[in-house]
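R.M. (postdoc): so does anyone remember the format we settled on? I'll just put the C-alpha cells first.
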C-alpha cells in the first residue's frame, strides 16, 4: 500500500529571536509518528543542535551546494584586447599586465564575456556556495545546510533542503515534514513556506514584533495555506496579545495560543536544549497544549503519553 504523503508544517517569524527554533523543537519532540525535519534557516542553522543531533561532521550525508556560476579567464588565451571590459555591465573585469582578470565578488555569472571574447578565453564555472547535510537526530532525520560567508542564492539552497527532506520523508514513511523557516519575509522565506499544509507564525508580544507578524502573515497568506499564530513571551505586553487575537479573527488565522516568558524556557532556548528539559510541570503542560494545537492544523497529534 502506498504511504500517504507527509504533511508539511513550516514555522516562520517576521524577525529573528522570537523563539521559532524553540517551538520547532518542541513540536519535533512531541509529534506522534515518524517525522523529518528541514532547517531552512540556512544563514544560521541551529536545529541540529536543538534536536540533540550530532554536529555536521557526524552527518550521514554531506554534499556541496553550487549556488551560481562565475567567469574564469584562461590567461594563455587572452590577447588583452579589452573587449570584455566594455561589455561587462557589472564592472567585474579589469586588466593586469594585459590579461583580463575577473573580480569573483562582482561577477554575476551572466556569461556575456563568454560570448564576446574573440579568443574564447572565458568559461563559466560553478561556484560552491555552501553545503547541506542529512543528520539522524533522536527525533528523526534532519536536513540542514550552511551557506558559506558571502555565499549567494539562499533561496535555492532552501529549495534543495526541502527537496532532500521530501526524499527522506518518502524513505522513512514520515507523516510530518517540519520546516524551520528563515526569519524575515524575503525570498528564502517564500521558498520555505511554499507548498506546505500549514504555516505557524511565531512572534513575541512587542509592538514591533506584531508589525513584523502582520507583514509575514501578509506574505504567507499569498499561498492560501492555513496560518496559525503563536505569541511568545505573552506577558511582555498583553495588549499586543489581544491585538494578535483580533488579527487572527479578522484574517481567519488560527489562534494557536500564547506562551508567557519563562526563565527556564529562555535558558533551554539559549542553550539549545530540549525545550521540555528544564520546565516546571505547569509550563510544560502549556507548551504541550500549544504543540497539540499546532499539529492539529494538519490533523496530527502529540504522542499519547505526553498529553495532559
Ligand atoms: S575579450 Fe577575451 S581576449 Fe579580449 S581582453 Fe577580454 S578575455 Fe582577453
Ligand atoms: S560573467 Fe558577466 S558579470 Fe561575470 S565577468 Fe562575465 S560579463 Fe562580467
Amino acid at each position: 500500500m502506498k504511504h500517504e504523503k507527509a504533511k508539511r508544517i513550516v514555522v516562520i517569524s517576521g524577525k529573528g529571536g522570537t523563539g521559532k527554533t524553540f517551538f520547532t523543537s518542541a513540536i519535533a519532540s512531541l509529534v506522534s509518528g515518524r517525522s523529518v525535519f528541514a532547517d531552512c534557516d540556512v544563514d544560521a542553522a541551529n536545529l541540529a543542535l536543538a534536536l540533540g543531533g550530532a554536529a555536521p561532521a557526524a552527518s550521514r550525508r554531506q554534499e556541496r551546494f553550487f549556488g551560481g556560476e562565475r567567469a574564469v579567464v584562461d590567461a594563455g588565451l587572452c590577447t588583452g584586447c579589452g573587449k570584455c571590459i566594455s561589455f561587462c555591465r557589472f564592472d567585474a573585469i579589469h586588466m593586469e599586465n594585459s590579461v583580463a582578470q575577473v573580480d569573483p565578488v562582482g561577477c554575476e555569472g551572466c556569461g556575456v564575456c563568454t560570448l564576446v571574447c574573440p579568443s574564447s578565453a572565458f568559461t563559466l564555472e560553478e561556484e560552491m556556495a555552501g553545503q547541506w547535510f542529512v543528520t539522524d537526530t533522536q527525533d528523526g532525520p534532519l536536513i540542514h545546510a550552511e551557506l558559506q560567508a558571502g555565499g549567494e542564492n539562499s533561496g535555492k539552497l532552501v529549495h534543495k533542503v526541502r527537496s532532500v527532506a521530501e526524499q527522506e520523508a518518502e524513505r522513512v514513511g514520515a507523516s510530518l515534514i517540519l520546516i524551520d523557516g528563515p526569519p524575515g519575509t524575503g525570498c528564502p522565506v517564500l521558498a520555505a513556506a511554499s507548498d506546505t499544509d500549514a504555516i505557524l507564525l511565531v512572534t513575541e508580544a512587542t509592538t514591533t514584533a506584531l508589525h513584523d507578524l502582520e507583514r509575514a502573515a501578509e506574505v504567507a497568506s499569498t499561498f492560501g495555506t492555513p496560518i496559525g499564530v503563536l505569541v511568545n513571551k505573552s506577558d511582555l505586553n498583553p495588549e499586543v496579545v489581544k491585538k494578535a487575537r483580533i488579527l487572527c479573527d479578522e484574517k481567519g488565522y488560527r489562534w494557536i495560543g500564547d506562551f508567557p516568558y519563562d526563565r527556564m524556557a529562555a535558558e533551554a532556548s539559549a542553550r539549545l536544549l530540549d525545550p521540555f528539559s528544564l520546565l516546571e510541570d505547569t509550563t510544560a503542560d502549556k507548551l504541550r497544549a500549544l504543540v497539540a494545537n499546532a499539529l492539529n492544523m494538519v490533523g496530527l497529534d502529540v504522542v499519547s503519553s505526553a498529553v495532559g
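R.M.: ...and that's the designed sequence above, right after the C-alpha cells. Also worth knowing: The CA atoms of residues 154 and 186 lie 10 Å apart. Residues 154-172 form the longest helix (19 residues).
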